[in-house]
Write a structure and sequence with these properties.
Blueprint (H helix, E strand, L loop, with lengths): L2 H14 L7 H8 L3 H17 L2 E6 L3 E6 L2 H15 L6 H15 L8 H8 L3 H17 L3 E2 L9 E2 L2 H15 L20 H16 L7 H19 L8 H8 L3 H11 L10 H13 L9 H5 L1 H21 L9 H17 L14 H4 L3 H18 L5 H15 L9 E6 L4 H15 L3 E6 L15 E4 L12 E3 L6 H11 L7 H7 L3 E8 L4 H12 L3 H13 L5 E2 L2 E5 L9 E13 L2 E10 L6 H16 L2 H9 L4 H9 L9
Parallel strand pairs: 5-6, 5-7, 7-8, 9-12, 11-13
Antiparallel strand pairs: 1-2, 3-4, 10-11, 12-13
Helix pairs in contact: 1-3, 1-4, 2-3, 5-7, 5-8, 6-7, 9-10, 9-12, 10-13, 12-13, 15-16, 15-18, 16-19, 18-19, 22-25, 23-24, 25-27
Length: 665
């Protein structure tokens, strides 16, 4: 990029940081040119501003200021320029995006670039480029790519076209897909360019073909696959096709996803760039398998051949390791093999193509997904270890959390013991209206009640208190003077009141105390205003404090470090210590005296727990629900800290089972 162009970008960046007018001589000082040069740049600066959603306002005696007229267009330009021109000691996000900027530039370069070339083109210092190269090389390696040496022939980045595209797609999403292409035709963003109308129609064609097929894709990946279609067409047009071996071609053609890929590419043929060869169709089909969402009724052996058998063997090894480490047998849960093997098959296909990291949507954060399955994420690390020992490859965080989602589905299928409710129904309108109220409740929740008996309010005096659990009445509160817990509803209950019947009356029949007792959490300790120093020092503290011997201390320390990426969400850190390494079960809450950082994530509370599930599936479900509630709502931790009661755990878990305010019919 020419120096003049870089200066226009820098001037625009300076103006985006100003709320008030800035004079031309001040601009000249900031970019080390003369005031005359600045005045010569104004026409081009004005044009760039307008194209970026802002007017450049000039006022005699005051200088220049930007007035934004299109925030949607202006905001991504401002963000990207901030990444380019902010100080090197900026935020982690800015530094990560700077890495992506370098990757965006070099991933498509066909000639060798020096550090000076890259620094000059991206308007970064040579020292900042050198600082980022370690991360650049790390990410290239994850996608089976590397930087070429001066003595080698070929493009700047060495590796297959398929791997290159996967990294380009990852950069595009991870960097922010609204990113403005400041360097036209010089970086990877240009390969995603397409008129809006065509882009929407291509996505529509893809989704229609998917809906009409028996293939399913995780929702979060449909947008990614639509973007890949744009990338595929432009890279193929640019003379950069994918090449697959005969063995790879035969492997992919067997999958039903191949037929879907054929149809999509055929129907997209009306747009430029889609007259592609067979390998391109096969590569797109492969991505459909990578990100498949296999349903419960799918016959795995018929659709995934020997992969189904491999998944069954891997699943058996996984369940065996979980039983050994956590004393719980997942195979006792209905549909366990189908649910877990459906999650394993896409991972095995990725493994066969050395593409375990090609599913990465964000290389730096999966916080929103982690908070949905903290215990399942912990168990999923056993699968990560199996991949490392059996296949000598690592699971990406994205794949680990995706499999944890399958595990979480499995854990949520574990039922709690339920004692049907014995209830009295009384409506102020008399027996007939009480009977109608009873019928409405039975229609919605019939199987949840052992009995639902109708009485007048005054008749309830003759009934033994121990014969009923609840009273459901349409009377005012002041008229009720009995010992049963009572829920007041209208003669014809509102939707909210019907939800209350479920949340308050029916859920009281869920038996949770036995699960809590089974866990034998002998120690429940709260540390207020805890002075936290660092992640490593805290893990070291827990290891020495809880380990029953020197070997256990080392194993706790190593395990907590290994699983740290799935420990934090919503400013809560949860550390689960395997029971065989401690002398007795414990449950501790550390309330920090101020917000701190754990593995680059902010935290206010740390929960440390160790429990022996002792073959109890109910105890596993209890801990799973409890930890999810901690991640989703910090108030639960505040309540425990204030009340300091282990029994409060059952209240938290029961509340986590409440129905959403939607129809329960």
């Amino acid at each position: 990029m020419a120096n003049e162009k870089k200066r226009i970008l820098q001037l625009f960046y300076i103006l985006t940081q100003q709320d008030d007018y800035i004079r031309s001589y001040e601009l000249a000082e900031k970019v080390s040119v003369t005031e005359r040069t600045i005045k010569n740049d104004i026409a081009e600066l004005e044009a760039f501003a307008k194209a970026s959603g802002a007017d450049l306002i000039a006022k005699k005696g005051k200088g220049y200021v930007l007035k934004v007229f299109d925030e949607e267009k202006f905001s991504p330009v401002k963000i990207q320029l901030a990444i380019h021109f902010s100080a090197i000691g900026g935020t982690p996000r800015a530094q990560n995006d700077r890495t992506n900027d370098i990757l965006r530039r070099i991933i498509v370069e066909k000639r060798y670039l020096t550090i000076e070339d890259i620094a000059d083109e991206l308007y970064l210092t040579k020292s900042s480029i050198r600082e980022e190269l370690k991360e650049v090389n790390f990410l290239l390696n994850k996608f089976n790519l590397r930087l070429k040496k001066r003595s080698e022939e070929g493009p700047m980045v060495i590796g297959s076209e398929f791997d290159r595209r996967m990294l380009m797609l990852c950069i595009f999403e991870n960097h922010y897909h609204e990113a403005v292409n400041l360097y036209k035709n010089t970086d990877s963003l240009s390969f995603f360019d397409r008129e809006d109308e065509e882009r929407y129609e291509i996505r529509h064609i893809f989704l229609k073909a998917l809906r009409e097929s028996d293939c399913h894709i995780l929702d979060g990946n449909t947008q990614r696959l639509s973007r890949y279609l744009l990338l595929m067409a432009s890279r193929y047009q640019a003379g950069c096709p994918i090449h697959l071996s005969r063995k790879q071609q035969d492997y992919i053609r067997r999958f039903r996803e191949y037929r879907v890929a054929e149809e999509v590419i055929l129907k997209c043929g009306q747009f430029s760039g889609f007259d592609v060869n067979e390998d391109e169709i096969l590569a797109f089909a492969l991505l459909l398998v990578f990100w498949a969402d296999i349903p419960l009724d799918c016959k795995l052996a018929d659709n995934y051949f020997e992969l189904a058998e491999e998944a069954q063997k891997l699943n058996a090894a996984f369940c065996k390791s979980v039983k050994k480490d956590y004393n719980v047998d997942l195979t006792q849960i209905p549909n366990e093999e189908q649910i877990l093997c459906s999650g394993l098959i896409p991972l095995l296909v990725q493994k066969d193509f050395n593409a375990s990291f090609h599913s990465v949507k964000s290389l730096h954060s999966e916080d929103s997904r982690i908070q949905d399955c903290p215990l399942a994420s912990k168990l999923a690390h056993n699968l990560a270890r199996l991949f490392e020992t059996q296949y000598h490859c690592k699971l990406s965080l994205y794949n680990l959390i995706t499999f944890a989602g399958h595990l979480n589905t499995l854990l949520l299928m574990i039922p709690y013991p339920f004692k049907p409710i014995r209830a009295i129904v009384s409506n102020g309108g008399g027996y007939i209206s009480s009977g109608i109220l009873k019928q409405m409740i039975q229609t919605r929740f019939g199987s949840c009640f052992a009995c639902l008996d109708v009485y007048e309010l005054y008749e309830m005096r003759k009934l033994p208190v121990e014969d009923y659990d609840w009273a459901i009445l349409s009377y005012p509160y002041y008229s009720y003077k009995y010992d049963w817990p009572c829920l007041m509803v209208n003669s014809i209950p509102t939707q909210s009141q019907m939800n209350d019947i479920y949340n308050q009356v029916i859920l009281s029949g869920v038996q949770l105390q036995s699960a809590l007792d089974h866990l034998r959490l002998g120690v429940f300790t709260i540390y207020r205003d805890f002075e936290y120093e660092s992640m490593d020092s805290f893990i070291q503290l827990i290891s020495y404090k809880m380990g029953k011997d020197a070997e256990s201390v080392e194993k706790i320390y190593a395990d907590l470090h290994y699983t740290k990426k799935t420990c934090v969400a919503n400013k809560v850190c949860i550390l689960f210590v395997k029971r065989q390494w401690v002398s007795k079960g414990f449950f501790e809450i550390y309330q920090l005296n101020q917000e701190r950082i754990f593995d680059e994530q902010p935290i206010l509370h740390i929960v440390v727990i160790s429990a022996d599930f002792d073959s109890s599936l109910e105890a596993v479900r209890f801990v799973n629900d409890l930890l999810i509630s901690f991640f989703r709502d910090n108030e639960n931790l505040w309540m425990l800290i204030e009340n300091h009661r282990v029994t409060g755990l059952t209240e938290i878990v029961r509340a986590s089972l409440k129905a959403l305010p939607i129809s329960l019919g």
